[in-house]
Every structure is written in structure tokens, then in C-alpha cells.
Amino acid sequence: MDTGHLLGLACAVGATTGGAWWCLRRLGEARHLLDTPTSKIRSAAQGYVEFYGVLREQANTAIVAPLTGKPCLWWRFRIEEYQASGKSHSWRLVDSGSSEGWLLLDDGTGSCLIDPRGAQVRPTTREVWRGNLRHPRGPARSGWAAWFSAGKRYRYSEERLHAGQPLYAIGAFRSSGGGRQGLDVGAAQSEVIGQWKGDFAGLLQRFDSDGNGRLDEQEWNRVRLAAQLEAEDRHRQHSQQPAQHHMGRPGEAQPFILSSAGEDELARHFYWQAAGGAVLCLAGALATAWLLGVTRL
Fold first, then answer.
1. Structure pTM?
2. Could you report the per-residue pLDDT of 114-140, keeping only the tens digit for each?
3. Rounded distance between C-alpha atoms, residue 79 and residue 97, angstroms
4. Could you tell me whether strands 103-106 and 47-56 are parallel, antiparallel, or unpaired per DSSP bridges?
5. In terms of Cα–Cα distance, which of 234, 220, 221 is closest to 191?
6. CB atoms within 10 A of CB 59
7. Beta strands 244-248 and 111-114: pairing type?
8. Shortest CA distance to 245 belongs to which of 53, 31, 34, 74?
9. In the chain, which stretches have pLDDT less than 70?
10. How many CB atoms are closer than 10 A to CB 278?
């Protein structure tokens, strides 16, 4: 088999494998969205959940989009440079980024803080425009800098989430405070004892009743009883605090999605992408079979 046929075969196998992987992934994500019932923040069970709500501003938090300078709650941007060589031309990515500030979702029954890191964020607000500056908000160039940058073209894109916009969120949910956590007495007791051992001199001062510089079995029993009482008191105080809800990236292979569109629209989009992956897989398989037949391997 010559080099051309080997390269073609490698591309065909890659298309088959990649198409199959993409199809199965998008089908799995669509099923997760449709099979997960919508929950209310106030009564949601701990674990993998989905919410519908509205984005709210947080106190003492001011976020400004980097390319437009517009206030928002979350942003993502891309800066590309136009490159041409002969008859070929393309846009080359020169800079990109996204914000990592937490979002506040309100569904009428409660509020939930969302860590967007690792999420598929799909906002509806998107702006695309072009210019001749490396950064659209950068200072105008003059002198030699202007001469060297003459003729350069850039394409900018910026996506944003704003306060008051609807948001669909699916991910790992957890709550603290509000009496929602049970007490693991053994683990909590061990944690308190571990903290006390960090100041062993203080531990001896409190529990070494005979002053011999060590703790015997009876004195250790007193330590364990005092640590249990301390752990129970800490848990009681923590339970009296208002409940705080958080969502973040699931630990398992489950989708983490934040979207301005609802689950039905997202599922349709994923099904179309899965169909595209299936077509690519089929085309790659047919090409692979044809190349193997031509080369008689």
C-alpha cells in the first residue's frame, strides 16, 4: 500500500471512530437532559439535578465583558486574525477566554450559586464584529506600531449572560446549613481530635489530670467524650445557619450544561449533532471498506 492509500485509510478510520464517538456522546447527553426531572431549589435532593430559573445579580459583584465593556454576569470571547497566503486564507485564533465568577440562579423557591467552570455554557447573547486592532478596546496605534499593523484584520466574538435572563442548569447539586446534613459522629469526633492534637501541649493541659506528661486510657476516654460533645455542638450551630445551595461539575461522566434555551431545544440540537456523527461514521466506514477492497488487504 502506498503512502496516499495509507493516509486515506487513516483518515477514513478516524472519521468512523470520531463519528461514532460523537454520535454516542450527544445521544447520551440528550437522554440525560430528558430523563432528569426538573426540581425546585428549595426541595431538591442532593445529587444530579436540573433547574429552571432567572439569573440574578450578586451584591458587591461587578463583571464587565472584556471586548465590549458591557456589564454582565458571565462572558466568553474569541479574537481571530485574518491570514492570507496566495489563494489560501483563514482566521487564526490569537486570544480567547471566559469568566469564572459564580452565577446566582433564582427559581422562586430559593437561590443557588453555580460554579460555571467545566460547564457547557450556551448563551443567546452573542456579538460578532471586525476591526483592525489587536484588541477592540485597545489604544489606537501610532508611529511604527501603526505602520507594522497596517492591513491587519481581526474578527471578534463575545458571548454573555445578563441579569434577568432565563437559565436552564443541569449539574451536581449540594446544600449546606439549614439542618440538611446528618451528623457522622465518628468522623466528626475524629476531626475534632485531630485538630486538638495539633496543639498537643494544650491537649495535655486540658486532660492530663495526673500531670505525668502523657494521656492514659482513662484520660483518652475523656478526650473522646469531649470531642464528641464538641462535634455535636458544631453541627448544631452549623444546622442553624440558613441553607446554602451550590451547583458545579458532576464527578461522573454526566453533562454539566448552563443554557439560555430549555431542555427540549437542547435535546433537539444534540439529536441533530448525533445524526451528523452517525453520517460521518457511516461515510468513514464505507470509505474504509472501499480502500481495503482497492488495496486487497
1. 0.68
2. 999 999 999 999 999 999 888 887 554
3. 9
4. antiparallel
5. 234
6. 5
7. parallel
8. 53
9. 1-2, 4-5, 138-151, 177-183, 238-242, 294-297
10. 17
